[in-house]
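Please go through the protein record below and see whether the fold suits the sequence. Record follows.
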Amino acid sequence: MDQHATSDNQYTQGIANFVAGLRYDDIPPEVIARIKLLILDSLGCAIFGADLPWSQILLDTLSAVDTSTGTTVWGTGKKLSAPHAALVNGTLVQSFELDDVHRVGVLHVGAVTLPPVLAIAEMNPGMTGRDFLTGCVAGYEIGPRVGMCMGPEHIGQGWHSGATVGVFSACAGASAALKLPADQVVHALGITGTQSAGLMAAQFGAMVKRMHAGRSAQSGLYGALLAARGFTGIVDLFENEYGGFCTTFSRSTDRFDRTKLTAGLGTKFETMGIALKFYSCVGSNHTTLDAIRKMQERHPFGAEDVAKVLVRGSRVTMDHVGWPYVPQGMTSAQLNLPYCVATLLLDGDVFVDQFTEDKIADPDRMRIAAKVAVAEDAEITARGSRFRHMVHVTVTLQDGTTLDETVEAGRGSEHSFASADDVIGKFRKLASRRIDTAQVDAIIAHVMEAEQMDSAASLARLLATRR
């Protein structure tokens, strides 16, 4: 490795050392138990998403130009080359705003980690279940730390972290799956990091928002595969003051903190800080929806009883989800907080059946959404990224009754993580729409007993549809 890589890249090298040195026996049992549930959740999201319009366009397009058929496209009967399969599979996990989120790192982790790791499993049938879980933990640990380093201002200034930060989860997972030595992981990070790109304006109705995770998954796979062959990357990716990741993707040096890249690495597992979704919308909306449900439990009310709703939250929440609702497509509906509040008030839930094309411009939803205002609470903003989803919600009813609720973290969050039964139930509900009960049961068994797999490729094969 270049001398520069050993003298001026302590953070890049620190990440590489962790990825290269991580072993299954180093991972605490509670982290192994948690990663299995996180994996299962992401796979359910992907299988459900395989038949959505944007997923089909992407798959059909790549199938038309791809002559290789070595890697499974989850929830379908098709195979593509490993990089194209990673692109599609990452898109499938993120296809309907159902997948996990690391709130502080602002990252959907499974969508960017699992596709390259399982692609490598199919390329290398000798990868055991223990190696598979180790690769997944490596990916789930690194991406969130890069997001924590960059802080909420990164997404606040318009970068989509799933596309910019997500590449590092993909790279770490793929590098660990390939068992690259630390010097090659440094180069894998440098190859991957220069592929970071993604604009948050994609949230306003564009299908491409779904694809950002897929591109990250693909970029991380490319980075690891190329580094394994001796291709070189930026060895001081996080440290370089000109064109390095941190300085390029932040407006000023006081907006990122490189120490978060390696602080607690190997002892404090960020995998335990990843939350799951039980609403089919962006994670920033979940605390408000939970708050309204809590108020309804105390004082039942419906959509027509509401005069106005005021949501006060962080600046990032206001900018990210708080704009006045205008029908611009499914992505916009799932990200917009007023629309999701209206949906909950009208339907009593905000899951997959509530988001259909005929409802995007539904006059009743638009009328109720217009009653919802979102404003910054400076005190919540000042509390930092760990509280970015915190909200104070005030509902004023037509009869003058005022109800208030504060929620810091939503159902399924790291503070109130879902039970195994809840996660398995969500997987069944999503996956059973495309595969039969026997296949659903087999996938659950493989994931929940993953350390017993002689070859992780067996799990990848199970993800193909049989009917």
